[in-house]
Specification:
mainly alpha
Length: about 575
């Protein structure tokens, strides 16, 4: 069942008395403020007498809400009630379990994370201890990963869309902060890309074209920033957009060659991007008929976000944050100037990372349908956004002074041959079979063919979904998520954090039960298979099995201690409430 059909099904359910029913009687144990978290205001009346009569004005259509950030215009008697006392105790345990896991993971990051070559904590007596016992540090890291992922799954049981009682927005926000804060101040984990950012920005700050020289050539291999860059990227031009480097060169001038200060400063920038996304996600979710808390659980609280955005500080935070904020701005500000402003922001997102350009097309679908959904509306909006894109990128390109080199280097990441990317795996398999059959080594030619084939599939899916969303058969935000997911899977390179391109837009645009179960399973597995070092544990690979075994034993003991005190991991459909769109975004 697709995203559009799923939301239509929920829309049909909301008008069926047999399905919706008068569930408000079971909303809470006693309807008292005690069901809320201390200090949290009550957002929905508990009785039918106190609920406003929404059907007197619009029996069959949703009324635009004055605040779509939380509950939309869903009738108060069908809003999920706050958690009852036993569920609040469960939530408290889940929070503490996840926070403890985050702290243990942060401790392990000192000795088993992607720490800089000259780790400043090694000489510190207490904090430097994990760096001197790497096996224990790695065991702590994997134990922390297991704890955070499990706590997230438990939290999902209390945040599943359609529950009679549900985690509040305030409770979800606090949980994300509790789990993310230890990782925000710990050494990087799971990737060394942050050090590549620092080196390439330093190249740009010296007035050297980062699209013509790699950091090793421009700065020298003995430079402190280059020492932390993986060998494959030392002599490689920058693969990032011109705006990312334009902004980064100013940060490079501030940090100089201080690696630790640079990591912390860039992490602040990425967290700001994540905050932009957290601002936009609940509002866009309410527009699409998805409960904001359910959307935030699958996006902001996702272990992929915590591990690879907060800790790894990947620029997906800026891409997704700007992309979603721009779409919300364009939908809220309906005047032509609002469309232009949103188009500029989406172009800026693409100038950081190319997937941002794809969002322009699906935002244009929203605008075209809002104007009437005629073909001339589609052509007019496409022309307007095309001009906005060209003007914005022209200004950025001229300002940078680096010419059009950024277009050519968008293919730079494809030089990494990873078996995680299906098309690259097919190409390397084909090349290997050719050598086994005595046909010679044609691996590079096979990779070119599979790359073209993958891009063709992505282009076809994108065009098809643009047309279906224009015809109203699928939510444009859901179509955007599917398109970006296709780009990630069928592209020549695939990293775990690329899943956020797909999961975040889909988390706020569909209530499909199977999608949420599948996404939770995939994100949990991917979050656990990437080693905390972000690279091979060179010359110490024998330590990994011992660390993993130790972490599994400790984790099993913790699960035994938590038995019967937390929600079951697998959500069910029993007792789910129907959801309802708060505003038809194309109207």
């Amino acid at each position: 069942m697709g995203a559009g059909e799923t939301n239509k099904r929920h829309g049909a359910e909301r008008d069926d008395p047999a399905r919706s029913g008068a569930r408000h009687e079971d909303a809470g144990s006693d309807g008292s403020p005690g069901d809320r978290e201390p200090g949290e205001a009550e957002t929905a009346p508990r009785t039918a007498e106190s609920a406003p009569d929404m059907t007197a004005h619009a029996p069959d259509t949703a009324v635009p809400s004055t605040d779509t950030a939380y509950a939309g215009d869903t009738p108060a008697d069908r809003q999920p009630a706050p958690l009852d006392a036993p569920e609040r105790r469960q939530l408290d345990l889940v929070r503490r379990f996840g926070t403890t896991g985050s702290l243990v993971l942060a401790f392990g990051a000192i000795g088993a994370g992607a720490a800089p070559v000259d780790n400043p904590l090694i000489g510190v007596r207490l904090l430097g201890l994990p760096a001197r016992i790497p096996t224990v540090a790695m065991a702590c890291a994997w134990l922390g990963m297991l704890m955070v992922v499990t706590a997230w799954l438990w939290l999902g049981k209390l945040s599943w869309p359609g529950r009679d009682r549900m985690v509040s927005r305030t409770q979800m926000d606090r949980t994300v902060v509790m789990w993310g804060l230890p990782l925000a101040i710990a050494p990087p984990l799971f990737s060394t890309d942050m050090y590549t950012y620092l080196a390439q920005n330093a190249v740009a700050s010296l007035g050297i074209n980062p699209y013509s020289l790699g950091p090793g050539t421009a700065l020298g291999v003995d430079h402190p920033l280059v020492a932390n860059v993986p060998n494959i990227w030392r002599d490689t031009p920058s693969p990032y957009g011109p705006l990312f480097l334009l902004f980064g060169q100013h940060i490079a001038r501030v940090i100089g060659d201080d690696v630790v200060f640079g990591v912390l400063l860039w992490r602040v920038v990425m967290i700001i991007g994540l905050m932009l996304a957290i601002w936009a996600i609940p509002r866009l979710a309410a527009r699409c008929g998805v409960h904001p808390v359910a959307a935030l659980w699958l996006s902001a609280a996702n272990p992929i976000t915590l591990f690879h955005v907060v800790s790894g500080a990947h620029n997906e935070a800026l891409l997704v944050g700007i992309m979603l904020a721009a779409i919300e701005l364009g939908l809220r500000w309906r005047k032509p100037l609002g469309v232009i402003a949103a188009g500029v922001l989406l172009s800026i997102g693409g100038a950081i990372k190319p997937p941002g350009f794809v969002a322009l097309g699906f935002f244009g679908i929203y605008v075209a349908r809002r104007r009437g959904g005629r073909m001339r509306d589609l052509v007019g909006v496409a022309a307007l956004l095309g001009v906005v894109l060209l003007v914005t990128m022209t200004i950025i390109t001229v300002t940078s002074g680096w010419g059009l080199g950024w277009i050519e280097t968008y293919d730079v990441p494809n030089r990494i041959k990873t078996w995680l990317a299906p098309m690259t795996a097919f190409g390397m398999t084909g090349g290997g079979l050719g050598m086994l059959l005595g046909l010679g080594n044609h691996t590079n030619s096979m990779l070119v063919i599979t790359k073209i084939f993958g891009y063709a599939i992505t282009g076809g899916v994108c065009l098809r979904l643009l047309w279906l969303s224009f015809k109203g058969r699928i939510e444009p935000l859901a179509a955007l998520g599917i398109t970006l997911g296709t780009l990630a899977v069928f592209g020549p390179v695939l990293h775990p954090w690329y899943l956020l391109w797909m999961v975040v837009p889909l988390s706020l645009s569909t209530n499909d039960h199977r999608f949420r179960l599948g996404s939770a399973a995939i994100c949990s597995i991917v979050a656990l298979v990437v080693p905390p070092t972000g690279a091979a544990f060179l010359l110490r690979a024998y330590q990994i099995p011992f660390a993993v075994i130790a972490s599994l034993i400790a984790f099993g003991i913790l699960l035994w201690l938590m038995r019967g005190k937390v929600p079951p991991l697998l959500p069910t459909r029993k007792g789910e409430l129907p959801t309802r769109k708060s505003e038809h975004v194309t109207s």
